[in-house]
Amino acid sequence: MTWSKVQQVRLATERGILEEYFKDKVKWIDPTNPSQTRVELDLKSGSDRSYKLRLYLKEDFPNSCPHMAIVYPKNLRTKNNHPLPLLDKSFHTLGLTVDEFTKLCHFSPDLWTADNTLYQVLMKGIMWIEAYEGHLDTGNPIDFYLGEQPEAIQGQNEEQIFPEIEPVPQPEEETKKGCCIS
User: Which CATH class for the 5-161 domain?
Assistant: First the structure.
């Protein structure tokens, strides 16, 4: 299977946005294979620690919410040097990816629309990293810093931010599950 023409145009737009904002810190992995396409972002936190985020695009992108994981450092620890909880609402973690990286909560799939962008997802990953570092400094859970994000951040006003992005026609609506643990 390959990306449709509409998806290819959308992915080219996404690539342009990511390169504009993150320059050479973005890496596309297997971008022509819809079942294996990944996007990675190398970054430094506000406290100058290195991190790497990975997005896992789905074959129907942009119609469904991509997964996001933190791939470096792999074994995250809490302030008390315990392993970071893998499935915990207060830490915004959703278990492990297929390649065993910590999956992060970023968008609720039932709020995701085809207008949402990879840039928005990565920005939420950056927010998660800064909240994680706040946890390392204070011991407060990540939820203390993030909490619930308002709808505007959830991606409801993308037309004002990225008017050039055309949504991909969506297939029949299917049942969607929440992203964060309730």
Answer: alpha beta
